[in-house]
Design brief:
By secondary structure, this protein is of the alpha/beta class. The protein has a single domain, classed as Nucleoside Triphosphate Pyrophosphohydrolase (Alpha-Beta Complex), CATH 3.90.79. Strands 1, 2, 3, 4, 5, 6, 7, 8 and 9 form a nine-stranded mixed beta sheet that branches. Strand 1 and strand 2 form a beta hairpin. The longest helix has 13 residues. It is globular, with a radius of gyration of 15 Å.
Amino acid sequence: MKREHRISAGAIVLQKDEILLVRYINRSGKSYLAAPGGAVNTDESTNQAAVREVLEETGIEVKPSKVLIVEDMLSKSHRIIKIWFLCQPIRGKLTKTQDAVEEGIIEAGWYRRNQLNNEIVYPDPLLKHKWDDFYNKNWQTLYLELKKVEF
């Protein structure tokens, strides 16, 4: 099966002991949280796309610093590579944007780790690592092996 290739960018946005996540409802009606992100436009860099996606989905403007994760995914119609940047918020406030509504995001919020105990969260390493480790100069970019996804 031939699939269209898609480059995506996402943002791991941390502030104090909280992380910025958006909530979706999947096809079976179950909710999940994800760090903001999406497709890279033809005329922008991956880090520019991460900044744009966060602003579109949450109303928060961010500044990317480094690549934390590279995710390799396969959907029914796309072969996707997603680059996740560590970002810091620089201005703005959480807003329910029109872009978010059109994308199916039902809310955006700041979450503490203990609020995520019974949640499905993407990308997976957000629950497997201490968030402070992302700032470590010795952080090695994680490569997430190819996996099938439903979107």
